[in-house]
Amino acid sequence: MKSVKKLMLGVAVAGLTATASFADTIKIAFIDPLSGPFASTGTNGLHQYQFAADAVVNENGGVLGGMNFEIVPFDNKISPKESLIQLQVAIDQGIRFIAQGNSSGVANALTDAIAKHNSRNPDDRVLFLNYAAVDPALTNDKCNFWHFRFDANADIKMDALTDVIAQNDGIKKIYVIGQDYSFGKAVAAAAVGMLGAKRPDIEIVGNELHPIGKVKDFTPYARKIVASGADAMITGNWGSDMVGLGKAVIENGFEGPIYTYYAAGSGITAAIGESGKGRIRLIAEGQINPPVSDEASAMYKAYKAKHPDGNIDQPRIFNVIGMLAKAIEGAGTADDVVAVAKQLEGMEYQSIWGSKLFMRPQDHQLIQDMHIQVHTDEGVEFDYDGSGFGVVRESTVSMASMDIATTCNMERP
């Protein structure tokens, strides 16, 4: 990677790709919520994609002799139906790479639609770059050749979380709560099954789902959790639902650890603040604090210079961009997505955030290190939301679930 000075220069000219001609750009459609209750999550992800395209690819000469990446945003309003409309718009614009992550419900709709489109239109195929939708079914029974997942699935994350929980003898009762859709259900099923296998003495005192993006006041849920006598809590909530739930349970007197998937950045860290110190833990890829290298530190500083109120809270976005660039170079083309997909299959890649990555060919699930991180203001070089609080790595599961079973039976073109 370039020096800090060169990275900062790259930030200064970040808008140049938008003015490049179509022939000089490789477009990536970003289909995620840019309005509504999850707009902050989607917007922050968009900014990270745009910055990564510039810092990783465009300011380093592009790919294929100088072609730049261009991120084209499409607002899906977190709706599967709207996502399918935006997918068709992107395809009609000649875009061959589709990035999406927020909501496995959306991802399930997109992967089905893309598989059907590619079957019917062999000369106009597209690839689905899933950077955050972690329903295990997407790389199991619903897997397909056109879908690649760059985040660990819900089962992989829960396997790592429950390893840590199982070592805590003080936890005897756990409350599981999440959003009522495919991902929330997958988290709950994994929690119950894995805790039962690793710590059969732990009692699940609550297992509850709530409507996604519709609960304005989580106080009734928080009171039930406190009244249950739970020693700890597990949730896969994200976005505004994580903010609401996290604040409510703490304000209503819950004192145990809260194990989460997405309780950092996008306003969540600032909203929870001091009250969550040392109590909120999350499972995630990519180590931000402490930085793993001068290169990673420089990248984060350059991002903050461009987005002072933003965060690199989804480091995997940089992995998506880097691995796609490597695959296109290996294929020698961005037009033949079958050739690009075959380059992604089995790819090994060194993330700037410290982990070796492996795209497992049999199901297109990325295998990587998973970190248990704690919400704190101690030892934080890079905070989130300008709050003074961030997440610091406590422990790591190396190449998590490398040998986990998959039911994927992939058909290849």
TrEMBL record:
<dbReference type="InterPro" id="IPR028082">
    <property type="entry name" value="Peripla_BP_I"/>
</dbReference>
<dbReference type="GO" id="GO:0006865">
    <property type="term" value="P:amino acid transport"/>
</dbReference>
<protein>
    <submittedName>
        <fullName>Branched-chain amino acid ABC transporter substrate-binding protein</fullName>
    </submittedName>
</protein>
<keyword id="KW-0732">Signal</keyword>
<dbReference type="InterPro" id="IPR028081">
    <property type="entry name" value="Leu-bd"/>
</dbReference>
<dbReference type="Pfam" id="PF13458">
    <property type="entry name" value="Peripla_BP_6"/>
</dbReference>
<feature type="domain" description="Leucine-binding protein">
    <location>
        <begin position="25"/>
        <end position="373"/>
    </location>
</feature>
<keyword id="KW-0813">Transport</keyword>
<dbReference type="InterPro" id="IPR051010">
    <property type="entry name" value="BCAA_transport"/>
</dbReference>
<keyword id="KW-0029">Amino-acid transport</keyword>
<comment type="similarity">
    <text>Belongs to the leucine-binding protein family.</text>
</comment>
<feature type="signal peptide">
    <location>
        <begin position="1"/>
        <end position="23"/>
    </location>
</feature>
